[in-house]
Design a protein that fits this description.
This protein has 469 residues and is mainly α. Helices cover 77% and strands 0% of the residues. It contains 19 helices and no strands. The chain is globular and about 60 Å long.
Length: 469
């Protein structure tokens, strides 16, 4: 069970992806009105419920598919197909959310994900199990769309704070979910019950999204991009209200929802081409390298601990849960940290990446279990901060007018890392149990070098714009 939980934790570490709230409610001034405060808090709950439901089921899936008679190879193929679907669908779904609006795309993704987990609860054969993974593989991008919506709602300065709180709320769900799922798995037909409960949680999430205080009024411009640069926050109520109306209705008028599917596909392809033609390759490469480095750290964690120190998988599972809990704490501390860095996302990302590289090196060369605990403690902080900063840097450099597309591309890059990391880990592990983290150190050093080489561009906010055609 703990090995399955460790594998799920490795995927969550890069998935997806800060305190410092202002005022009594803990929400930045950019969303200071009562309706927008309620909106942001509800999105935190959406993130919590999403990962709570998913993490109930994911650690049990390998056990279930093997109980259906599938071989290790077949189970691996189905898992890889899910990753491949995520790889190609994240960019398209993110871009689609820019076109039709966050509300409709978020509801569609939640409902179709619920359908996938409902089918999983009826899967009595390997074929049905594989079919149930299709809608989830294509449409399970609720967290990315929620992050894009948060990015629309707040100013550039306050974005890391709100994103961090969202990540912290999601991580709490990921910590509690496996515990509840493990308890339910002990019951008769426990996996099926767990899957149905997960589907019900997604339906509850859909109801929560439907009841959010969405504005029914269309606005043609996105005042966020105009107002966020050169200002600390949107403290004026008029700006907040107009901002909320603009963000929640998407980048285009609501008639975009009723365009022919062909026109929507053409628009999506044009936006993806704009990303491909933009000068964002370096920040995406940094994201890929750091993703693979962290995945290599977690890829053989339980096995390496057992081979190097004779530690049982139970202890490794506790250590991973401990790191996840610290990741939540790191999200709550990111607000003061960003203020300490004077909201310089580039410098914070560079320092957190350097710390991550150093801690992975310490883990690879550790001579005692206490050095492992020490490195795991601070690695939870550095990776949480790094994930938030790299998303913020993508949106800052690429421009916030296509936040769904940018976040989708970022998720695709992370999916590539999830495909590459197991292969690199297997090869490196042939030489030594310390091989995967040692290779991760090298990749992290390359990422740090790329950031140093492109320092000027990262420091000139918004200098890289997406090409329209």
């Amino acid at each position: 069970m703990f090995r399955a939980a460790a594998a799920a934790a490795a995927g969550r570490m890069e998935e997806e992806e800060e305190d410092g709230g202002r005022g009594a409610a803990g929400i930045p001034a950019a969303v200071a009105t009562s309706s927008s405060r309620r909106f942001v808090r509800c999105l935190y709950m959406v993130g919590f419920l999403d990962l709570f439901g998913v993490s109930m089921v994911v650690p049990l899936m390998n056990l279930h598919i093997k109980s259906l008679g599938a071989s290790h190879t077949v189970a691996g193929i189905i898992g890889s197909l899910y990753g491949i679907m995520q790889l190609f669908s994240s960019t398209f779904v993110g871009c689609w959310s820019d076109i039709v609006g966050r509300r409709y795309s978020l509801l569609a993704c939640i409902f179709l994900s619920a359908l996938g987990y409902f089918l999983l609860g009826t899967s009595t054969t390997v074929l049905l199990f594989a079919i149930s993974r299709v809608p989830v593989g294509i449409f399970k991008h609720t967290l990315s769309i929620s992050k894009a919506l948060l990015s629309d709602l707040v100013s550039e300065r306050d974005r890391p704070l709100v994103m961090g709180r969202f990540n912290a709320a999601s991580s709490v769900g990921f910590i509690l979910g496996p515990v509840v799922g493990g308890y339910l798995a002990e019951l008769e037909d426990g996996f099926y019950q767990t899957s149905f409960i997960c589907a019900s949680i997604f339906l509850l999430n859909a109801g929560l999204v439907w009841l959010l205080p969405w504005s029914e009024e269309n606005t043609g411009s996105r005042v966020h991009q105009q107002g966020s640069k050169g200002t600390d926050s949107f403290s004026a109520k008029a700006n907040c209200d107009l901002h909320l109306k603009s963000a929640t209705n998407g980048a285009l008028p609501s008639e975009s929802l009723f365009q022919s599917p062909w026109l929507q596909v053409v628009t999506v392809l044009k936006r993806i081409k704009g990303i491909a033609c933009s000068d964002l390759w370096d920040i995406l490469l940094v994201r890929l390298l750091m993703s693979v480095a962290i995945l290599l750290y977690y890829s053989n964690f339980s096995l390496a601990m057992e081979e190097r120190f004779g530690v049982k998988p139970l202890f490794s599972g506790y250590l991973i849960s401990y790191s996840s809990a610290l990741g939540v704490l790191a999200g709550c501390l990111l607000g003061p940290i960003t203020r300490l860095y004077q909201h310089n996302t580039y410098r914070l990302l560079l320092h957190s990446s350097t710390l991550t590289c150093t801690l992975i090196l310490l883990y690879a060369s550790a001579l005692s279990i206490w050095m492992i605990i020490f490195s795991s403690t601070f690695l939870a902080f550095s990776t949480t901060i790094g994930r938030t900063c790299i998303i913020d840097l993508e949106l800052t450099i690429g421009g916030n007018e296509a936040s769904g597309t940018l976040l989708g591309v970022g998720q695709s890059v992370t999916s590539v890392g999830r495909i590459i990391a197991p292969l690199l880990s297997g090869i490196a592990q042939e030489f030594s149990p310390c091989g995967p983290p040692s290779l991760g150190v090298g990749l992290a050093l390359v990422a740090i070098l790329i950031m140093n080489m492109n320092k000027q561009k990262y420091c000139s906010h918004g200098s890289v714009k997406l090409k329209k055609k």
